[in-house]
């Protein structure tokens, strides 16, 4: 158990809908990262937050957004969902110093 | 741009045999390198990491990896594989500025009894 929690574990929704994925980092970690794992793209970095502020952006679609709250949990919002958004979404956290990222169990999203 | 290559998509070994999974990276500066393992339906578990110092690093579950700068490689090894090691293994490099992990495509390990 990495100490990073993600909810929900599974999510099934329809095209055009909006969903929110939630992540709680390890105790004391200030950085949260979001990654997407899909069969065709592999594991791709989406976005990073550090202590509430956006720190880095990767291949994140404009339909996707994220935020990190004062209690350091983070949410990834996916809107206008398409079939191709079906993937496993991972959250990771680090203390912002040593840069080792610890991953949560992921949220499996299926868009029908 | 940084990249990670795992040339073997799928490897099959017998239980008790030795294992080596290959990883090559492309990165201009001194890389921070990681190996993660993903069991079916599970998240990514950190096996080991290399930041600096001794080029042979030990990890959990009996795994080790050797950083070879001259070959831009960071191969993962285990002297004797157990059936429970069957999983997908990912090599990753951390970019210094963005703090994001760039992953290889993964190597799926199958262990035969």
How is the topology of this model organized?
The complex is a heterodimer of chains A (112) and B (113).
Chain A: E1 5-7, E2 10-13, E3 19-24, E4 31-38, E5 42-50, E6 53-57, E7 64-68, E8 74-78, E9 87-94, E10 102-103, E11 107-111
Parallel strand pairs in A: 2-11
Antiparallel strand pairs in A: 1-3, 3-8, 4-5, 4-9, 5-6, 7-8, 9-10, 9-11
Chain B: E1 3-5, E2 10-14, E3 19-21, E4 24-26, E5 32-38, E6 44-50, E7 56-58, E8 64-68, E9 73-78, E10 87-94, E11 101-103, E12 107-112
Parallel strand pairs in B: 2-12
Antiparallel strand pairs in B: 1-4, 3-9, 5-6, 5-10, 7-8, 8-9, 10-11, 10-12
Structural write-up:
The complex is a heterodimer of chains A (112) and B (113). With 112 residues, chain A is mainly beta. Chain A has strands at residues 5-7, 10-13, 19-24, 31-38, 42-50, 53-57, 64-68, 74-78, 87-94, 102-103, 107-111. Chain B is mostly beta strands and 113 residues long. Chain B contains no helices and twelve strands. Chain B has strands at residues 3-5, 10-14, 19-21, 24-26, 32-38, 44-50, 56-58, 64-68, 73-78, 87-94, 101-103, 107-112. In chain B, strand 8 (64-68) and strand 9 (73-78) form a beta hairpin. The radius of gyration of chain B is 13 Å and the shape is globular. The interface between A and B is medium-sized, with 23 and 20 residues.
């Amino acid at each position: 158990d990495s100490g990073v929690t993600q909810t929900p574990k599974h999510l099934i929704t329809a095209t055009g809908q909006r969903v929110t994925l939630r992540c709680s980092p390890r105790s004391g970690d200030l950085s949260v990262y979001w990654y997407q794992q899909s069969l065709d793209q592999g594991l791709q970095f989406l976005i990073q937050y550090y202590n509430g502020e956006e720190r880095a952006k990767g291949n994140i679609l404009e339909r996707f957004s994220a935020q990190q709250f004062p209690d350091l949990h983070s949410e990834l919002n996916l809107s206008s969902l398409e079939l191709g958004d079906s993937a496993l979404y991972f959250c990771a956290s680090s203390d912002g110093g040593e840069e080792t990222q610890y991953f949560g169990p992921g949220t499996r999203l299926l868009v029908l | 741009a940084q990249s990670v290559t795992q040339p073997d998509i799928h490897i099959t070994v017998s239980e008790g045999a030795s294992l080596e999974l290959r990883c090559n990276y492309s990165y201009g500066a001194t890389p921070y390198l990681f190996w993660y393992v993903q069991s079916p339906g599970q998240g990514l578990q950190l096996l080991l990491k290399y930041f600096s110092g001794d080029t042979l690093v030990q990890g959990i579950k009996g795994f080790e990896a050797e950083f070879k700068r001259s070959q831009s490689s960071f191969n993962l090894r285990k002297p004797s594989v157990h059936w429970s090691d069957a999983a997908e293994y990912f090599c990753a490099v951390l970019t210094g500025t963005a703090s994001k992990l760039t992953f290889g495509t993964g190597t799926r390990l199958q262990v035969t009894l």
